[in-house]
């Protein structure tokens, strides 16, 4: 794998500054600078029938979804969103399914949906086997026909993040995926800007402004229909364990895909995802 190096501190500051400016091409901007989550922009998902053998239930709670400022924001200039995983054994979902973990997931469905453009987020997160945060975009309708763009996923190995596309005949363990490795001394626990440039003919993934993976329409059509001409909404979530982490780390106990040391981090209140801002700008239709 190639190593993709960080931009200079000055360029990262410029990325952050640009994201805070309202431009004529801005479709959506959220800097999480309010006291509470803006429900005019975001939906909070509540689930109790998880997919991928994940080990968490998503709840609508300020224990799992909340804002921080100042020192608590850990480097976010105007405050940050926190998605936090919590150990709560015996939690019962409305579907009467029992979970030992709760977490948070939000989306912009019906509130902000866009076809083409650049979607970016500045994020940092706790590392640990089985911690599975993601920044992604999804179309409406039946999955995978609706198309899914995974701008950033990490499953606990702090040295890399993955990008992926899912659609008809290329989903699950999709062939359209790539691991972008960080340089030595750099990892997911530090702030990075994750983005995708989405056009009618390609998707170009970047970390800190540097291209890490490019997928073209002909590449996709080797496997199935191009599912990236419809509007999609943004999702930020913090999953725990399940098929993707478990398939990589081969851990089955104490939970599928989650190590004992990670469980201890969750119990200690240390499993968090910080999101400084999310920006979507216009693309060519």
From TrEMBL:
One of its GO terms (molecular function) is hydrolase activity, hydrolyzing O-glycosyl compounds. Residues 1-19 form the signal peptide. SUPFAM superfamilies: Concanavalin A-like lectins/glucanases. GO terms for biological process: carbohydrate metabolic process. Residues 17-285 form the GH16 domain. Keywords: Signal. Belongs to the glycosyl hydrolase 16 family. This is Beta-glucanase (GH16 family). It comes from Mucilaginibacter lappiensis.
